[in-house]
Write a structure and sequence with these properties.
Layout lengths: L1 H54 L2 E4 L5 H14 L5 E5 L6 E5 L5 E6 H6 L2 H16 L2 H20 L1 H4 L10 H39 L2 H17 L3 H5 L27 H15 L37 H4 L23
Parallel strand pairs: 2-4
Antiparallel strand pairs: 1-2, 3-4
Helix pairs in contact: 1-5, 1-7, 2-4, 4-7, 4-8, 5-7, 7-8, 7-10, 8-10
Length: 345
């Protein structure tokens, strides 16, 4: 079913691309757009994931340089019955994450340093379970291809004035066609992009909560990420807005409404759905935060055992350690949560 939906989406995006070409250059422009669309399809299938990771300056990590983060992804992948995806880290203070790849065998998940620094062990696990749900549903190929096409159509719309300015370009609509290509085409691509993202986020939330076993972990994580994204800019995402729908929470500023024009469903609505799911599952360990008066969980409080097989409850301290004065912790990962040595240490 997902294969059919992906094929239909590719056909729709190709038709939209050809329509933009026709508006700009008539039949000749449409044929050129068809060739470009075919090339974009092939490129997207094989290389779009690499391009998205590169745009976000993601660095691959493993059990040696990011042991806790890698172990969480590894255990959750096993829990979901998925191959171990490549695991990436993004040097960005905004808490966020995304998944990409053409299939589960060639998938990748990426989390920002801000996510590891600002969320608890359980919340990080819930976020990565959400991303693995996208991998399991094969959303990653669809969403990555849409990002590539949306970026290409937007770029074509930006160049429409220059491409359509030649009187000999066989454009039957003249300046009106050029104007439509400049305004309508990027807008149409944005609508398709948003519709694809919004319908898949709720499904990934539910499946991610099933994988980690605690919907309220994900509810708490979504609240923290949303509040962090509101305060902390993401310059890489701002430069490439076509990628916004890939992230678990919209990384761009100014789009927080649950309407046709938002790349993601309302965080409040997603939290409410997870709270309802928690009640169905009998997960009453804690209350998910309300956006109006959030109460971030303290990292030194006992937590339920995580799906990675390791209890998050702090171990009993040694006598000599108890004598030391308590020091505040910004996160449960220690001084260097990202693992690799260098500018993140």
């Amino acid at each position: 079913m997902n294969t059919i939906r992906t094929a239909m989406l590719l056909a729709a995006m190709t038709a939209l691309f050809m329509g933009v070409g026709f508006l700009i250059g008539g039949s000749g422009g449409m044929m050129i757009a068809l060739v470009v669309a075919a090339g974009t399809n092939l490129f997207s299938y094989w290389n779009a994931d690499k391009m998205v990771l590169s745009m976000n300056r993601a660095v691959e990590v493993d059990e040696k340089n990011a042991p806790e983060y890698y172990a969480i992804v590894q255990a959750l992948a096993k829990q979901a019955g998925l191959p171990m995806p490549k695991t990436y880290l993004i040097d960005n203070p905004q808490p966020n994450a995304f998944a990409t790849g053409r299939n589960p065998q060639n998938a990748a998940v990426a989390a920002s340093t801000g996510l590891l620094q600002r969320l608890t062990h359980e919340e990080v696990a819930a976020v990565m379970a959400h991303e693995l749900a996208h991998v399991q549903h094969r959303d990653t190929l669809t969403m990555t291809i849409v990002a590539t096409f949306a970026g290409a159509i937007s770029m074509l719309g930006n160049f429409a004035f220059f491409l359509g300015g030649n009187r000999d370009n066989n454009n039957p609509f003249g300046f009106v066609g050029v104007l439509a290509a400049m305004i309508v085409a990027p807008f149409a691509a944005m609508i398709v992009q948003m519709a694809v993202s919004r319908t898949r986020e709720y499904e990934a939330d539910r499946r991610g909560a099933e994988i980690c076993g605690h919907p309220l972990w994900l509810a708490s994580a979504l609240d923290k990420i949303a509040r962090g994204a509101e305060r902390i800019p993401n310059p890489d995402a701002e430069r490439n807005p076509a990628m916004a729908h890939l992230f678990i929470i919209n990384p761009l500023h100014g789009e927080r409404m649950d309407s046709l024009f938002s790349t993601h469903p309302s965080t409040d609505n997603r939290i409410a759905a997870l709270q309802a799911m928690a009640r169905e599952m009998g997960d009453g360990a804690s209350q998910a935060p309300r956006r109006q008066a959030p109460t971030p969980p303290r990292v030194d409080e006992p937590q339920a055992a995580g799906p990675w097989g390791k209890s998050a409850e702090p171990e009993q301290a040694e006598p000599e350690q108890q004598a030391e004065p308590a020091r505040p912790k910004s996160n449960p990962w220690g001084r260097n949560p990202t693992g690799p040595k260098g500018r993140w240490s």
